[in-house]
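Posting for a labmate who doesn't have an account.
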Amino acid sequence: MDLKEAVKKIHWLGHDCFRIDGSTVVLFDPYQISSTKPADVILISHDHFDHNSPEDVAKIRKKDSIIVTDQASAQKLSGEIKVVSVGDRLSVKGIDIEIWPAYNTDKEFHPKEAGMLAFVVTIDGVRFYHAGDTDQIPEMDKLDVDIAFLPVSGTYVMTAEQAVQAALAIKPKIAIPMHYAAIVGTEDDAVAFKKALEGKVDVLVLKKETV
Protein backbone atom coordinates (compact mmCIF):
# COMPACT_ATOMS: atom_id res chain seq x y z
CA MET A 1 0.00 0.00 0.00
CA ASP A 2 1.47 3.36 -1.01
CA LEU A 3 1.14 6.49 1.08
CA LYS A 4 -1.69 7.97 -0.97
CA GLU A 5 -3.73 4.83 -0.43
CA ALA A 6 -2.73 4.69 3.24
CA VAL A 7 -3.96 8.23 3.88
CA LYS A 8 -7.37 7.38 2.42
CA LYS A 9 -7.69 4.59 4.98
CA ILE A 10 -7.07 6.83 8.04
CA HIS A 11 -10.12 8.06 9.94
CA TRP A 12 -9.84 10.47 12.86
CA LEU A 13 -12.66 9.89 15.32
CA GLY A 14 -11.61 12.70 17.66
CA HIS A 15 -9.03 13.27 20.40
CA ASP A 16 -6.40 10.49 20.06
CA CYS A 17 -8.67 8.02 18.29
CA PHE A 18 -7.80 6.88 14.78
CA ARG A 19 -9.10 3.95 12.77
CA ILE A 20 -7.00 2.55 9.94
CA ASP A 21 -8.99 0.49 7.46
CA GLY A 22 -6.22 -1.72 6.16
CA SER A 23 -6.50 -5.43 5.44
CA THR A 24 -6.57 -5.54 9.23
CA VAL A 25 -8.74 -2.82 10.79
CA VAL A 26 -6.82 -1.16 13.63
CA LEU A 27 -8.20 1.39 16.07
CA PHE A 28 -6.32 3.48 18.63
CA ASP A 29 -7.65 4.92 21.92
CA PRO A 30 -11.43 5.06 21.36
CA TYR A 31 -13.05 7.87 23.37
CA GLN A 32 -16.51 9.40 22.92
CA ILE A 33 -16.81 7.86 19.49
CA SER A 34 -20.03 7.53 17.55
CA SER A 35 -18.54 5.03 15.10
CA THR A 36 -19.52 1.41 15.56
CA LYS A 37 -17.46 -0.08 12.73
CA PRO A 38 -15.75 -3.06 14.36
CA ALA A 39 -11.99 -3.25 14.69
CA ASP A 40 -9.80 -6.33 14.41
CA VAL A 41 -7.14 -4.88 16.71
CA ILE A 42 -7.70 -2.22 19.38
CA LEU A 43 -4.64 -0.45 20.78
CA ILE A 44 -4.92 1.47 24.05
CA SER A 45 -1.99 3.63 25.09
CA HIS A 46 -2.68 4.05 28.82
CA ASP A 47 -5.28 3.98 31.56
CA HIS A 48 -6.53 7.58 31.59
CA PHE A 49 -10.29 7.81 31.00
CA ASP A 50 -9.93 9.60 27.67
CA HIS A 51 -7.87 6.74 26.25
CA ASN A 52 -9.05 3.63 28.07
CA SER A 53 -12.84 3.87 27.81
CA PRO A 54 -14.48 0.45 28.21
CA GLU A 55 -17.82 1.75 26.93
CA ASP A 56 -16.18 2.99 23.72
CA VAL A 57 -14.20 -0.22 23.31
CA ALA A 58 -17.49 -2.10 23.53
CA LYS A 59 -18.82 -0.16 20.53
CA ILE A 60 -16.14 -1.44 18.20
CA ARG A 61 -15.10 -4.77 19.75
CA LYS A 62 -16.27 -7.97 18.06
CA LYS A 63 -15.91 -11.57 19.21
CA ASP A 64 -12.46 -12.03 17.76
CA SER A 65 -11.07 -8.52 18.35
CA ILE A 66 -7.74 -8.42 20.12
CA ILE A 67 -6.89 -5.59 22.51
CA VAL A 68 -3.24 -4.62 22.99
CA THR A 69 -2.55 -2.47 26.04
CA ASP A 70 -0.68 -2.06 29.32
CA GLN A 71 -1.39 -3.89 32.56
CA ALA A 72 -3.28 -1.04 34.22
CA SER A 73 -5.66 -0.61 31.28
CA ALA A 74 -6.21 -4.35 30.87
CA GLN A 75 -7.73 -4.60 34.34
CA LYS A 76 -10.73 -2.55 33.20
CA LEU A 77 -11.33 -4.39 29.93
CA SER A 78 -12.71 -7.73 28.81
CA GLY A 79 -12.19 -10.00 25.84
CA GLU A 80 -8.91 -11.21 24.38
CA ILE A 81 -6.20 -8.90 25.68
CA LYS A 82 -2.47 -8.93 25.08
CA VAL A 83 -0.69 -7.10 27.89
CA VAL A 84 2.49 -5.43 26.71
CA SER A 85 5.18 -3.09 27.97
CA VAL A 86 7.74 -0.77 26.43
CA GLY A 87 10.23 -2.62 24.24
CA ASP A 88 7.90 -5.47 23.31
CA ARG A 89 7.34 -6.55 19.74
CA LEU A 90 4.52 -8.78 18.61
CA SER A 91 2.45 -9.81 15.62
CA VAL A 92 -1.33 -9.69 15.89
CA LYS A 93 -3.74 -10.61 13.08
CA GLY A 94 -1.07 -10.08 10.45
CA ILE A 95 0.25 -6.73 11.67
CA ASP A 96 3.55 -6.09 13.41
CA ILE A 97 3.38 -3.96 16.56
CA GLU A 98 6.30 -2.32 18.35
CA ILE A 99 5.75 -0.87 21.82
CA TRP A 100 7.46 2.47 22.44
CA PRO A 101 7.44 4.78 25.47
CA ALA A 102 5.22 7.81 26.02
CA TYR A 103 5.89 10.17 28.92
CA ASN A 104 6.15 13.74 30.12
CA THR A 105 9.46 15.52 30.60
CA ASP A 106 8.31 18.81 32.15
CA LYS A 107 5.04 17.81 33.85
CA GLU A 108 3.78 14.91 35.95
CA PHE A 109 0.63 13.66 34.20
CA HIS A 110 2.39 10.82 32.41
CA PRO A 111 5.52 9.87 34.38
CA LYS A 112 8.08 7.70 32.64
CA GLU A 113 7.98 5.12 35.41
CA ALA A 114 4.27 4.52 34.74
CA GLY A 115 5.20 2.71 31.54
CA MET A 116 2.56 4.29 29.32
CA LEU A 117 2.64 3.29 25.68
CA ALA A 118 3.15 4.52 22.15
CA PHE A 119 2.84 2.21 19.17
CA VAL A 120 4.52 1.63 15.83
CA VAL A 121 2.19 -0.52 13.76
CA THR A 122 2.98 -1.87 10.31
CA ILE A 123 -0.17 -2.27 8.23
CA ASP A 124 0.09 -3.40 4.61
CA GLY A 125 3.71 -2.27 4.50
CA VAL A 126 3.13 1.22 5.94
CA ARG A 127 4.56 2.10 9.35
CA PHE A 128 2.27 4.19 11.56
CA TYR A 129 3.42 5.79 14.83
CA HIS A 130 0.80 6.67 17.44
CA ALA A 131 2.65 8.70 20.05
CA GLY A 132 0.13 8.37 22.88
CA ASP A 133 0.20 11.09 25.53
CA THR A 134 3.77 12.31 25.45
CA ASP A 135 6.19 15.18 25.30
CA GLN A 136 9.07 15.23 22.87
CA ILE A 137 11.34 12.48 24.15
CA PRO A 138 14.79 11.24 23.07
CA GLU A 139 13.42 7.88 21.94
CA MET A 140 11.67 9.63 19.05
CA ASP A 141 15.06 10.15 17.38
CA LYS A 142 15.26 6.38 16.78
CA LEU A 143 11.90 6.03 15.05
CA ASP A 144 11.63 5.01 11.41
CA VAL A 145 8.02 5.57 10.38
CA ASP A 146 5.96 6.71 7.42
CA ILE A 147 3.04 8.37 9.20
CA ALA A 148 3.15 9.89 12.71
CA PHE A 149 0.15 10.83 14.86
CA LEU A 150 1.41 13.49 17.28
CA PRO A 151 -0.36 15.32 20.15
CA VAL A 152 -0.34 19.11 19.85
CA SER A 153 -2.59 20.59 22.55
CA GLY A 154 -0.17 21.28 25.38
CA THR A 155 -1.26 21.05 29.05
CA TYR A 156 -0.97 17.26 29.34
CA VAL A 157 1.17 16.65 26.26
CA MET A 158 3.40 18.53 23.83
CA THR A 159 2.44 21.99 22.68
CA ALA A 160 2.18 22.58 18.95
CA GLU A 161 5.64 24.17 19.02
CA GLN A 162 7.12 21.17 20.81
CA ALA A 163 5.33 18.80 18.44
CA VAL A 164 7.00 20.61 15.53
CA GLN A 165 10.39 19.75 17.04
CA ALA A 166 9.25 16.16 17.53
CA ALA A 167 8.19 15.92 13.89
CA LEU A 168 11.55 17.30 12.76
CA ALA A 169 13.30 14.68 14.89
CA ILE A 170 11.13 11.79 13.68
CA LYS A 171 11.09 12.84 10.02
CA PRO A 172 7.94 10.96 9.01
CA LYS A 173 6.70 11.23 5.45
CA ILE A 174 3.41 12.57 6.86
CA ALA A 175 2.58 13.98 10.30
CA ILE A 176 -1.00 14.14 11.57
CA PRO A 177 -1.89 16.20 14.67
CA MET A 178 -4.10 14.77 17.43
CA HIS A 179 -5.10 15.47 21.04
CA TYR A 180 -7.00 18.69 20.42
CA ALA A 181 -10.61 19.88 20.13
CA ALA A 182 -11.75 17.51 22.87
CA ILE A 183 -10.52 18.01 26.44
CA VAL A 184 -7.84 20.59 25.73
CA GLY A 185 -6.55 22.35 22.66
CA THR A 186 -8.29 23.72 19.59
CA GLU A 187 -8.00 23.43 15.85
CA ASP A 188 -5.67 26.44 16.06
CA ASP A 189 -3.05 24.14 17.57
CA ALA A 190 -3.29 21.80 14.58
CA VAL A 191 -3.11 24.70 12.13
CA ALA A 192 -0.06 26.18 13.91
CA PHE A 193 1.64 22.78 13.79
CA LYS A 194 0.99 22.48 10.05
CA LYS A 195 2.11 26.02 9.29
CA ALA A 196 5.38 25.70 11.19
CA LEU A 197 6.30 22.55 9.26
CA GLU A 198 5.58 23.88 5.77
CA GLY A 199 8.39 22.90 3.45
CA LYS A 200 9.88 20.54 6.08
CA VAL A 201 7.36 17.80 6.86
CA ASP A 202 4.05 17.19 5.12
CA VAL A 203 1.22 17.68 7.61
CA LEU A 204 -2.33 16.45 7.15
CA VAL A 205 -5.02 17.98 9.39
CA LEU A 206 -7.93 15.56 9.31
CA LYS A 207 -11.58 16.38 9.86
CA LYS A 208 -13.24 14.48 12.67
CA GLU A 209 -15.42 11.69 11.37
CA THR A 210 -18.54 10.35 13.06
CA VAL A 211 -19.07 7.15 11.10
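Reply:
Got it, the C-alpha coordinates are right above this. The first strand starts at residue 10 and ends at 14.
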